[in-house]
Design a protein that fits this description.
The chain is α+β, with helices and mostly antiparallel strands. The chain has 46 helices and 37 strands.
């Protein structure tokens, strides 16, 4: 198993560790908001609390050892400066005191003078004595920006019965203290009249607004600006409590009872102002979303309505508990969304108010009391004393309430109430502690925490979550004797105090404190202390971490959710917190209340505490983006900068390195074995039986249940430790990776991050803008390497600088930036150097050196970036070699090739992963080839003239060749084809098939044939691949194989090929088969040729059918038939029955019958009759009385079937045609001339017509042309005599004799016929003329 510093841990392991950490980080966010803890659900039904023992549990009762648990550090007392004590004796009219915690000052006014000094040490006394009137109160506010000079940091506002005076306050910083020396401006900035209104309180907003509480019960604002306006002065007072026309009413006509406004407070998170009067009237003012508005929204007082609701909510009839109100405090949205204000009464009761209806978000519209919480002492079993009506001063913020209670006239008690040690309770559970105070309390304030956000999208988590990064909250109490400074202890500070009290990790107080918190919370606090510089406390905390961290165990699905632990066989009831509901020790929160199917592992508190503390350390940046993009005026591009500053990154790194050091000092944290404790059988046999029933392996004997139980206990205990150890190692590795990633990012930020980012590619910059720190740590090696490469490339050529950067990176992040990464950086640097070298051979030498380096780490580098570098310098060979090297390193066992050849089965995950990795590597080569192909197809660039006269440069030939994309493409292809990587050939051929298919068939490689055969199994690419395959065979003179592929292609069903293309394939196949017969004499090849020729004949018939159907009018039936005929090759029966018969294609029927050799004279004669009859009906005659279309068709059909009497019955055809000729008065020569064009000779025509004449068929008489046949005979004999060469010489003499014989017969017949027959005389003369001509031959 990898060690904690083993760089070989996978990204999956880091993701698993991150999930474990985020799981607990999510649990950290599962806290109940204040309104939920107080059960506030509706404005109409107020709720109450404070009467239950769980509201204010006494630690001393439940955990006696924590009875003296400190909640605050030892109070630091600072007396009044001695010089000021004397001023009390000189006081004549008035003395006031207060706190300015923003600048760590106390103020005191004695009559007309005001004094300010530091409450930390009582020093830096400053005063102002330039007033003539008694000072009533003082306030410190921030100035509005842009009004005063920069050295004015605050404004001191003093009020007198006559004036309002505003002084400028500046500071001189000493060291880290920005407010070490205070300076009051000698002259006031503004002085305005108070209009005889005593202003009793001054409060300023963060926007620089100044508000004052008037004794007349009104709210005033002092408005100031840089210059006087048309209708306004530079400084003026505005009354926000009266209407604009109230000045018209004289003051003596106002009959309302005076109720001085005594307190103003502002909720800066919501921009709401609240005021409190002396009689308890609370007013709400809305300052607007931006904080610059003003409108009075609502007011309420402790009248009967509020008191009645409070009594109802608290369940107490004593109305005096709820009046008067001595303090109000806003509840920021960092604490609650639905509760907005808390008021504290003289009895210590807290009244919670909201300003929106039923918890809705938005601006304030009302003020409703929704909860009343009683102070400690009201629970039935409480032993604490009730505060009584003695509270005269209070302070509340973020769950901490401080109450100053009068004990005597000159002594107070300070009561502190908070819920920090009960962080994740569902109801508000608070602890309380009290301190005696010398003197009467004048003011209580909390020192502002500048790190804490003013507002938040959701309430902030409990203090225990952020205590490791937060300073202790500091409170200042002011009395007439001086100041008390109280630092509130976080729970981790309390643990430190307990360890110091016990002087070690052993003690009742330590044990009690561990019972107070859950194990993971306790262990997380121990890690906070164990990673601090105090070695003694760190050692004690480490001991507590391992001693109280518990052990991992399994939870089993029994009826009571029992667990099986060493030494435990019966359920034990424990509690994760002293004040939480007790649950079974065997129960896990995730399994209580539901059934589970098998044992569930519950990690130990050590493991959970480690994850929890790590999550809290990384939570500020884990899901934050690496960089932020801002617009800078005057710049075209957006500026990219680190989300976190160098100081913040330094803090994060320091905290994580401390945790890393703790892990390295304590290797037992990852122990995979448990101590060999003896297993003792205890507990109920029923429990044992349930465990055995669940866990007994099949086939195990039931004879020895004790032995079985002990064996299973050991088995599951060891398994629990083993799994926790594995998870802990992953978490520890995540710690290391996070430390190194932060250190690396800090180094990048230190070296002009914006320039490094600008050097990245656009895609890389876009990726960087969207990446988070989590992604950067767990799976951001790619972007990290790109950033480092960009940084090093900025200093390319400066070897000293780059070597120092590489060395520094190796020191800071050895697992993130490995030795291989350093090699890759050096190789990238060489490529950058090569770009600047002019000499071609020197450049090539440097590039080859970089290629050697990249070859060592090709499997780990970003191939896309490396290929881009080489393509930029046109070193394309390197792209091929690097990518092939990377593919080989990633799959040394050739799993990808095996996966490919086995059909890429789904269950072969390992092979599929190797295959995908190889394909990714190969893709960079094919992408480069595509770019070269595109460049080679682009228009040629114009030639350039020589730069200077003289012979060409020695390297001009190389440069010319280097800039020729076509040559570069061919060279790169040649190099690629030389590889012996079969799977790469598959990828390369796939690219060539899509882009250079002509070039593919020319490749001489043993892999091409297998590739094409393999691809041909894909139906989607079948036709195209077979086309390439037969071309490949033909190119390699493998004609027999090519013929078979062509036949297979022609017979492939589908719409990819038309019938014409199928016939073309068969024709090509016949040609290949004939070429094969010329070179071989194998009998089966002859048979194959014969089959191909027959198949071709049938295919041509199918084409004839297709053309015949295509000539028909368009219809759905015709379209379907055409699609079917194009989709596949068919046999004769299908062609005849499904198409020729259906569509009455007589010519096609005749051709099919002829091709099939079917002998049926009646059918043939019928088909000829149908052909002639159909065409005769539609054929038209020309000027020579010849039906040209019929003649053309007859010639075409006749030539296909003549001289076969079976399929060309000449006598029947001629007789039928002559009948049509008689009927339609066609040219008498039409029939025999058509026969002559078909190929029928005069020698064959004469006996045929002679037979027709001698048959004396009455049909001719019916046409009134009894001499028609004789007329035809004399015509074609006349044609013969005019061209006797139409009969071959050796047949001419016998034919002449036959003709003369026939003429004699015809003349005798004519002599016996009536001379009235049409044409009798002309025919007779013609025959005699022919007789005379033939006798002279």
């Amino acid at each position: 198993m990898p060690g904690i510093s083993d760089p070989a841990i996978t990204a999956d392991a880091l993701e698993e560790a991150a999930k474990e950490v985020e799981k607990l980080l999510t649990a950290d966010c599962q806290y109940t908001e204040l309104s939920g803890k107080l059960r506030v659900q509706s404005n109409s039904v107020p709720t109450g609390s404070g009467k239950s023992d769980y509201d204010y549990p006494a630690l001393s009762a439940s955990i006696p050892s924590l009875g003296s648990l400190p909640f605050y550090s030892q109070a630091q007392r600072t007396p009044l400066p001695p010089d000021l004590v004397e001023q009390f004796d000189q006081m004549q009219c008035n003395c006031s005191m207060g706190l300015f915690p923003d600048i760590s000052r106390v103020w005191m006014s004695v009559d007309t003078n005001v004094y300010l000094w530091s409450y930390i040490d009582g020093g830096d006394l400053a005063y102002f004595d330039g007033l003539n009137e008694v000072i009533l109160t003082a306030g410190l506010v921030l100035p509005k920006p842009g009004i005063f000079q920069d050295h004015i940091q605050f404004l001191l506002v003093l009020t007198t019965p006559v004036d309002i005076v505003i002084l400028g306050v500046s500071f001189t910083s000493v060291g880290s203290d920005c407010y070490s020396e205070m300076h009051l401006q000698p002259e006031p900035l503004f002085v305005i009249p108070s209009d005889n209104v005593n202003l009793l309180s001054i409060t300023g907003s963060r926007h620089g607004r100044i508000f004052a509480a008037g004794k007349d019960g009104c709210l005033y604002e002092v408005v100031y600006q840089a210059e006087d306006g048309w209708f306004s002065r530079k400084c003026r007072k505005i009354n926000h409590s009266t209407s604009r026309l109230s000045f018209l009413v004289p003051s003596f006509l106002s009959f309302s009872e005076e109720d001085p406004m005594v307190q103003i407070t502002i909720d800066e998170s919501r921009n709401i102002l609240y005021s409190r009067s002396e009689k308890g009237v609370i007013q709400v003012f809305d300052l607007g979303n931006d904080g610059f508005g003003m409108s009075r929204v609502a007011q309420t007082s402790t009248d009967n309505y509020v008191i009645n609701r409070a009594c109802q909510a608290a369940g107490i009839a004593d109305r005096k508990l709820f009046t008067p109100i001595v303090h109000i405090a806003p509840i920021a949205n960092t604490e609650s969304y639905t509760l907005h204000l808390v008021a504290v009464t003289q009895a210590g009761v807290r009244l919670y108010f909201t300003t929106t209806p039923d918890g809705q978000q938005g601006r304030p519209v009302l003020l409703a009391m929704v909860h009343a919480r009683l102070p400690p002492g009201f629970s039935p079993s409480s032993t604490m004393l009730k505060p009584g009506n003695t509270i005269h001063l209070a302070h509340y913020r973020r769950g901490t309430l401080l109450l100053a209670s009068s004990q005597t006239d000159d002594k107070d008690a300070l009561l502190s109430i908070d819920h920090d040690i009960f962080p994740f309770q569902y109801s508000l559970t608070e602890s309380q502690v009290s301190f005696p105070v010398d003197g009467r309390s004048w003011a209580i304030a909390e020192v502002p925490n500048l790190v804490e956000p003013m507002s938040s999208l959701r309430p902030l988590p409990p203090a225990i979550v952020s205590q490791h990064a937060q300073l202790q909250r500091r409170f200042v109490l002011l009395t007439a004797q001086g100041t008390y400074i109280l630092d509130k202890l976080h729970p981790v500070d309390q643990l430190r105090t307990v360890l110091e009290m016990c002087r070690g990790a052993v003690g009742e107080a330590v044990d009690g404190f561990c019972r107070l918190f859950k194990q993971e919370q306790m262990c997380a606090m121990c890690l906070v202390l164990a990673t601090k510089p105090d070695q003694q406390v760190a050692m004690w905390a480490t001991e507590v971490f391992f001693q109280y961290g518990g052990e991992p165990h399994f939870v089993f699905p029994t009826s009571a959710a029992y667990q099986l632990q060493a030494g435990q066989s019966s359920p034990q009831v424990t509690s994760t917190s002293a004040y939480s509901t007790p649950v079974s020790a065997y129960a896990s929160p995730s399994v209580l209340g539901r059934a589970i199917m098998g044992p569930e592992l519950v990690m130990s508190g050590r493991h959970q505490g480690l994850c929890l503390y790590l999550g809290r350390l990384i939570s500020p940046f884990w899901n934050a983006p690496l960089v932020t993009v801002t617009f800078v005026a005057g710049q075209k591009e957006l500026q990219v900068q680190s989300t976190f500053s160098q100081e913040q990154l330094g803090v994060f790194t320091e905290q994580l390195n401390a945790l890393r050091n703790f892990i390295e000092r304590n290797p037992q944290l990852m122990a995979a074995t448990s101590p060999n404790d003896s297993l003792v059988q205890t507990g109920s046999p029923n429990v044992h039986q349930r465990l055995l029933n669940f866990m007994r392996p099949e086939g195990m004997s039931t004879a020895s249940p004790l032995h079985i139980q002990q064996s299973l206990q050991i088995k599951y205990r060891n398994e629990a430790f083993s799994r926790e150890s594995r998870s802990t190692q992953q978490v520890c590795q995540l710690v290391i990776k996070t430390c190194e990633a932060l250190a690396m990012w800090k180094l990048l930020s230190d070296n002009q991050l914006e320039l490094t980012v600008a050097s990245l590619k656009q895609a890389e910059r876009d990726q960087l803008k969207g990446i988070t720190f989590k992604t950067f740590v767990t799976s951001g090696k790619h972007i990290a390497n790109n950033m480092i490469t960009s940084l090093i490339n900025r200093f390319a050529g400066d070897s000293v600088m780059t070597d120092n950067l590489v060395k520094r990176l190796r020191e800071l992040a050895p697992t993130v930036y490995s030795e291989d990464d350093a090699i890759a950086s050096k190789a990238s640097e060489l490529v950058m150097v090569a770009k600047t070298v002019q000499n071609y051979h020197d450049q090539l030498m440097i590039l080859r050196e970089s290629l050697q380096l990249y070859g060592k780490v090709a499997h780990q580098v970003d191939l896309a970036s490396v290929c881009g570098e080489y393509q930029a310098v046109q070193f394309y060979d390197a792209v091929v070699e690097v990518c092939l090297c990377a593919a080989s390193h990633k799959d040394p066992q050739q799993l990808a090739l095996r996966h490919y050849k086995s059909g890429q089965p789904e269950d072969d995950a390992q092979g599929r992963n190797a295959f995908n990795q190889r394909m990714t590597s190969y893709s960079h080569i094919t992408n480069m080839l595509q770019q070269l192909l595109n460049a080679s197809q682009a228009p040629a660039s114009p030639t350039h003239s020589p730069v200077k006269p003289g012979p060409p440069s020695p390297h001009s030939a190389e440069l010319k060749q280097q800039s020729n994309p076509k040559q570069q493409l061919e060279d790169t292809l040649t190099l690629s084809l030389q590889s012996d990587d079969e799977l790469f050939h598959v990828t390369l051929y796939s690219w060539m098939k899509a882009n250079l298919h002509d070039r593919l068939v020319e490749v001489r490689s043993p892999f091409v044939e297998d590739f094409l055969k393999q691809v041909a199994t894909n139906k989607d690419d079948f036709v195209e691949t077979l086309n390439l395959l037969w071309r490949y065979y033909e190119k390699n003179r493998e004609y027999f194989a090519a013929a078979h592929v062509l036949e297979r292609l022609a017979e492939q069903p589908g719409s990819e090929l038309s019938l014409d293309q199928r016939i073309s394939c068969l024709s090509r196949a016949v040609m290949c088969a004939k070429c094969c017969n010329l070179t071989t004499t194998v009998s089966n090849e002859g048979e194959f040729l014969h089959q191909l020729e027959e198949r071709l004949d049938v295919a041509r018939l199918q084409l004839q059918v297709l053309h015949a159907i295509a000539a028909l009018p368009r219809s759905h039936q015709v379209t379907t038939a055409l699609d079917l005929l194009n989709a596949e090759l068919m046999d004769l029966s299908k062609l005849y029955g499904d198409f020729a018969e259906v569509f009455d294609l007589y010519e096609c029927k005749l051709a099919i019958v002829h091709c099939a050799g079917h002998e049926d004279s009646a059918l043939v004669e019928t088909l000829w009759h149908n052909i002639i009859d159909t065409e005769a009906q539609v054929s038209t005659v020309d000027g020579d009385a010849i039906p040209r279309s019929l003649k053309t068709k007859l010639v075409n059909i006749g030539q296909a079937h003549f001289p076969s009497e079976k399929y060309f019955p000449l006598l029947r055809i001629v007789k039928l045609l002559e009948q049509y000729s008689c009927e339609k008065n066609w040219n008498v020569k039409f029939v025999y001339q058509t026969m002559r064009e078909i190929g029928v000779s005069f020698v064959e025509l004469l006996p045929l017509y002679d037979q027709l004449f001698k048959a004396r068929d009455p049909v001719w008489q019916s046409f009134h042309k009894p001499l028609h046949i004789l007329d035809v005979i004399q015509c074609f004999l006349s044609d013969y005599t005019s061209s006797p060469s139409s009969v071959v010489l050796y047949e001419r003499q016998p034919f002449n004799a036959k003709v003369l014989s026939c003429i004699n017969t015809y003349l005798m017949e004519l002599a016996s016929m009536p001379t009235s027959n049409p044409g009798h005389h002309e025919i007779q003369l013609s025959f005699r003329k022919l007789q005379s001509e033939l006798q002279n031959f």
